[in-house]
Write a structure and sequence with these properties.
341 residues, two-stranded antiparallel ribbon
Amino acid sequence: MIFHKILTVILKILVVLIGLGFVFSAVGLCAAINLNAPPDIEKRDSLFEVKQGESASIIGLRLEDAGFIKSRWFWYILNRWKEEPLKAGSYRLELPATQIEIYNVLTRGKQMLVKVTIPEGLTVTKTARVFAEAAVCEEEEFLQAVENTDLLAHYFVPASSFEGYLFPDTYFFEEHYPAERVVQVLVDNFFKHFKEIADDKLSPREIFEKVTLASIVEREYRLEEEAPVMASVFFNRMKINMALQSCATVEYIITEIQGKPHPEVLLTQDTKIRDPYNTYIYKGLPPAPIANPGYVALNAVLNPAPSDYLYFRLIDPSSGKHYFSKTFDSHIEAGKLYVKR
């Protein structure tokens, strides 16, 4: 009788132990699965910002929504187990990564990034200066990277430089980051936005021509609603084999090619400079883009307004408003009637 009771107790203990073993195995397996990187995530660098005062659970939820981790619950458990504070800041995540690898980045703070804003209409040289001043990369290294023939071939850019393909935006980089990778991030961003508004069937040469014209529109327009109309003016001029006559191309010659200060006013003699970029004396597009256009200018060229305008003139320098004309006579008359002094 006593032996039977002892045997019963032993059997109950064994059942409990086996059950616990299954539980721990299941938990361990589940943890292993969730701590690993999602299997379908592509290899890339991605930016992630930890905002001041955010809880670990909120951060886990955002990581899960972004597809960087499998389960926010295991992220929360990991945080409770590790008991390390998540540091506010911007980070570069090398994906795919395990939850522990991501957690280590966000707790050790070693991947905090420099915020760099590239405004619309900057040239390659001015963009290089912005990154150098932010200590992201050396100016000369950036200029060499934008002329890297292997990179240009990789993106099918039919030019000697990425001028026009460095998308204006706000970026986050580590200090002393490789210049070639900086250029790649900007160019990848360009094609991402370009594909949102462009026909997939455009050839590299057609893309290059659109970017070149968009760079001119970028340097000419001031009011967003006028950009598509301005693009239509340039298209209408090209249709009748008329010179584009863009002041922006002459300014590019003076500042970027001749290395002189930006002129306050263009003189008649400036429009007669013998240079392929001078669209006053050479018909058609200039040899390459004159700046890096933003979304508005690109969209304007890819979706120009329907019009039969051939001329435009600035009539209000304070607001940037232009007057559009169909004939040269009305263009001249607008200068007399509407231009604010």
